[in-house]
Design goal:
six-stranded mixed β-sheet, alpha+beta, Cytochrome Bc1 Complex, Chain A, domain 1, globular, 974 residues, 24 strands
Length: 974
């Protein structure tokens, strides 16, 4: 399946340094040398140049160029003598460089009993190498204002960083050091800490979230035990307990050689410089063992297979998967389009037959393809206690679809959506680099580019869609996972029985793969211990912003950028739930926003969705505590038609009773589901303790009680009173000039102004004596903790901004004191953060973390200890220097994508900031004194008075918290 890769900001390198000398002296010297050379040439034949061995030089493999306007990513692909493939894409629009190293190894290469090893190894690659100290990789990148991370899936592991362009060489030095010099720095201590961290990650992302095990269970019944996709990428806990540090070293030596990797560099770089630097840093690394392409038999199910498991959920899920095709199979595009037609949007047959008739709360279809296999999936979310049989209902849907087939609008909607998604991948150098990497390892002998991706979807016919439906879905066997609400008491009468499954880590690779491996350290002709010198600074490309104020009070701001033939519009309507100043109306802004996506005066909901999707455009509404928002994305060619639809949707909604009841019911079930999610439970309890009985204390989506009390009249009244241009800012970013967009938005001038008053938000008084408020979550493997108090409203150059700088070394970055303590030293969490989040008139300071349940008391003790030490002793000189560099240099990454630009301008509009406020902050940052930060730490970190909320298993954590001297109070959530 083609998917839009998540956006990450990235950065590129500098111009070559030129050292000029005295020009007059150069001319004279050159003239003398020319005469001398002429005489020498007449008296002695020149010696032949030494032959260059091609085997020692990088070889150009492929070159792709793009003309302006073409949907093509230009690049050069080179191959180093050791087998490393280097792909360079030059994009000089922003002064950033993105470096991405992809190793063609994922969980599919693991051995029996050692599942999760590829992902475990991803963690170990951040633990320092021979010339890079522990945690220094993060410190260098974040200290440069950059972003970095790594990800693992079934087929590959990648590591990437986006930096200001003058840090390009630094990034290549870092990546090469862990490719060539990792093993000597691997210790048993690091290994054990990261083993704990990975277990915490599994608890946080799998075991402690609703439906978290669904994918793992599905893999076990869909794929045979010997298939490399049978086990989860994150692995089984018993396997993580089984492996040792020698296993890790063998895994590295087998799969992490340069001949099984690609290096993609994208951004404001010079291709020649990148290749030269790649040869310098990666060239000396010896080849690893040869890697053969994996081959497996296509998955064939002999019958329908099922698995049931109970979870702490409210609404049941039926997840059915049909074996489909691998990545880039000729049938992948038709299957993707089939999934879109079946289950995407109000015009899909699943929505019409199942959701609108209230047989299902939600139904989706999607086709996900990996390197070795594909999965066509149906997710059927039922209402609680529903008597509807999902399998029977889907059978009816398939029969009807087989009868009525695909029409022209169906095909046009799907193709329009896919084309817009594909074009959007050009919005950042990170997403382009990820695509180049994907194409490189998925199609090693076949060039691929974005225009070819678009073309393979545009070529799909109605006949293709029906053919793949009948070939892979209709009447075919599937693997189905049923997730049911598990009662607290497993012996409860009528409790469903869980399917017993055997954990198998498969036999994708034989242990013979790891016999006789030897670590060969690279031999250099330069001093690798010396970190590359960073030359000069980088000035961010701040968007040039235009601004207009309409007579009805609406603010219009924007900037033109011609990098993509796209336009993004963000509308922010201040108010949200707060504007009602009535706790009984919590959730009204969200309910109104959901109704804004339904019928209008001219269109039914289905008709509107049909017209919008055919354009490949999107218009979405949302509502929350403080604002409502509208997000519009359109291709330039379809902007006029999209704005006509926006005018209809924004100014002429039609609030129909039947649509209201459906939205009210679905939103209520969403709220109901949130009641068992630990993170949402913690956020809800924390807000109520912070804000007291204010409307600000209630969730943005409201509660079951407030939602059920509302009527369609409430929605109409909210729209009539609070959807006002005087409360609205509109931000336009994209391939459209100021003079061009203004007349297109004239319809906004007809929007009638309404006078709206915002009521200030204040915090509740802090409790006289600090205590721990505990929300019991039965058998939770982790504890969600929130610690904080009501601090400051937002400002860009006063106490709020300075306090964010003060917090940076405490909990504002990966190398913060809190994260190094709880994650990197003790391994009791996947990550912890602290920070100030100010709005116009209020804003809390919050420490947020999920920790292993048995370490809850340790976490609380260490958090309080770190705040106490920081408040008493203050910031160090090195921490202040690090914060200055990181926060100021990060501005280079701040404006790259359309959404990044729109977010920046929306902040200008919402807080009425000067357009140069970032520059003002940068100057303030450089002059901020250590004494002022230390005074802020004393004032703004009243740790002994902060609210403490925990969501976890009371039996596991209460007594240990009480032993620390805290009173534990049971806190109930409705």
């Amino acid at each position: 399946m083609f998917y839009v890769l998540s956006e990450i900001r990235e950065i590129a390198h500098p111009l070559l340094y030129y050292n000029s000398r005295d020009m007059k002296k150069q001319i004279i010297t050159a003239a003398l040398m020319a005469v001398s050379a002429l005489v020498f040439a007449q008296t002695k034949p020149a010696a032949p140049a030494a032959a260059v061995d091609p085997a020692t030089q990088p070889q150009l493999v492929e070159k792709v160029t793009a003309k302006p306007g073409e949907m093509i990513i230009s690049y050069e692909k080179w191959k180093l003598p050791n087998g490393l493939q280097v792909i360079v894409h030059e994009d000089h629009s922003d002064p950033i460089a993105h470096v991405e190293v992809t190793y063609h190894v994922g969980s599919a290469r693991e051995t029996p009993g050692k599942s999760g090893f590829a992902h475990f190894f991803e963690h170990m690659m951040f633990q320092g190498s021979e010339h890079v100290q522990d945690e220094e990789h993060f410190k260098i990148v974040e200290g440069a204002g950059g972003d970095m991370n790594g990800t693992t899936n079934r087929d590959r592991t990648n590591y990437f960083e986006t930096l200001p362009k003058n840090y390009l060489e630094t990034a290549l030095w870092l990546e090469a050091d862990r490719m060539g010099f990792l093993l000597d720095s691997v210790t048993q201590t690091k290994f054990e800490v990261q083993r704990k961290t990975v277990k915490n990650e599994k608890d946080q992302r799998v075991n402690n979230v609703p439906y978290g095990r669904t994918d793992e269970v599905k893999n076990q019944i869909l794929y045979p035990a010997r298939h490399p996709y049978n086990w989860p990428t994150i692995g089984y806990v018993e396997d993580l307990d089984r492996v040792n540090v020698e296993d890790l070293k063998n895994f590295f030596m087998r799969w992490y050689g340069p001949n099984n990797a690609s290096l993609v560099v994208a951004g404001d770089v010079s291709t020649k410089e990148v290749i030269d630097l790649a040869m310098k840093y990666f060239g000396p690394i010896p080849r690893g063992p040869e890697v053969r392409k994996q081959r497996v038999e296509p998955v064939r199910l002999p019958d329908n297979v099922y698995a049931n498991y109970g979870d702490n959920i409210v609404v049941p899920l039926t997840y059915s998967v049909y074996p489909s095709v691998p990545n880039y199979h000729p049938d992948e595009a038709p299957l993707d389009i089939l999934a879109s037609i079946l289950g995407d949007g109000n015009n899909s047959i699943m929505y019409k037959n199942l959701v609108k008739t209230e047989k299902a709360l939600q139904v989706n279809a999607f086709n996900f393809c990996s390197e070795l296999a594909g999965e066509f999936s149906i997710q059927f979310v039922s209402y609680p206690m529903s008597e509807v049989n999902p399998e029977e209902e889907m059978k009816k849907v398939f029969e009807e679809f087989d009868r009525i087939g695909v029409n022209d609008d169906d095909l046009k909607r799907a193709k329009g959506t896919f084309e817009t998604q594909m074009i959007s991948t050009l919005s950042s150098v990170a997403s382009k680099a990820s695509l180049l990497s994907l194409w490189n390892y998925s199609l090693p002998n076949k060039p691929m580019n974005l225009n070819m991706e678009i073309d393979r979807y545009n070529k799909v016919t109605k006949e293709d869609v029906m053919r793949v439906f009948r070939q892979y879905i209709k009447g075919k066997y599937s693997a189905t996972v049923n997730v049911f609400a598990k009662p607290k008491d497993a012996a409860t009468a009528g409790a469903k029985e869980e399917t017993k499954l055997e954990n198998s880590s498969g036999v994708a690779s034989s242990e013979l793969e790891y016999k006789g491996l030897t670590y060969i350290k690279p031999v250099d002709n330069f001093d690798r211990t010396k970190r590359p010198e960073v030359k000069g600074g980088v000035a961010p490309v701040v968007p040039a912003v235009y601004k207009h104020k309409f007579e009805n009070g609406l603010t219009l701001m924007g900037t033109q950028t011609s990098e993509l033939p796209m336009v993004t519009i963000l509308m922010n309507i201040r108010g949200g739930n707060l504007v009602t100043n009535d706790p009984s109306k919590a959730g009204l802004a969200a309910l109104t926003a959901s109704m804004m996506e339904e019928s209008t005066e001219k269109y039914t909901s289905e008709q509107f969705s049909n017209e919008l999707a055919k354009l490949g455009s999107s218009i979405s509404f949302s509502g929350g505590k403080e604002n409502s928002a509208v997000t519009i994305v359109a291709r330039k060619e379809n902007l006029d038609a999209t704005l006509k639809l926006l005018e209809e949707k924004l100014l002429h909604p039609k609030f129909m009773l039947d649509e209201f009841k459906l939205n009210q019911k679905r939103l209520a079930e969403q709220i109901n589901s949130n009641r068992v999610q630990a993170g949402d439970m913690a956020a809800k309890a924390y807000a109520r303790l912070l804000y007291g009985k204010s409307i600000a204390a209630e969730p943005g989506v409201g509660t079951i009680k407030t939602l059920k009390s509302m009527s369609v009249k409430d929605v109409q009244n909210y729209y009539d009173k609070y959807y006002s241009p005087s409360m609205t800012s509109v931000v336009v970013v994209g391939d459209v000039a100021e003079s061009e967009i203004l007349p297109k938005l004239n319809f906004l001038k007809t929007w009638a102004r309404k006078e709206v008053t915002m009521v200030p938000v204040t915090g509740a008084p802090l409790p006289e004596k600090q205590q721990v408020y505990l929300v019991d979550k039965y058998k939770a493997s982790q504890t969600e903790i929130r610690i904080g108090y009501m601090a400051l409203p937002y400002d860009y150059n006063g106490k709020y901004y300075k306090s964010t700088v003060m917090n940076y070394p405490l909990g504002g970055n990966f190398n913060s004191r809190l994260n190094l303590n709880l994650r990197e030293e003790k391994g009791i969490t996947y990550g912890i953060r602290s920070g100030f989040s100010g709005s116009k008139n209020a804003g809390p300071f919050t420490v947020s973390v999920a920790v292993r349940a048995t370490a809850t008391d340790t976490a609380l003790k260490e958090i309080m200890s770190e705040m106490k030490k920081y408040r008493e002793n203050g910031i160090t000189d090195s921490e202040l220097d690090y914060a200055r560099k990181s926060l100021s240099q990060g501005d280079a990454l701040r404006y790259e994508s359309p959404f990044a630009k729109a977010g920046f301008i929306s902040t200008l509009a919402y807080f009425d900031l000067p357009t140069d406020y970032v520059d003002q902050q940068s100057k303030l940052l450089q002059t901020l004194k250590k004494e002022e930060i230390n005074n802020l730490a004393k004032e703004m970190l009243p740790y002994e008075k902060m609210i403490i909320i925990m969501v976890g298993d009371k039996e596991k954590i209460q007594s240990n918290i009480e032993k620390l001297g805290y009173k534990v109070v049971d806190y109930k959530l409705d």
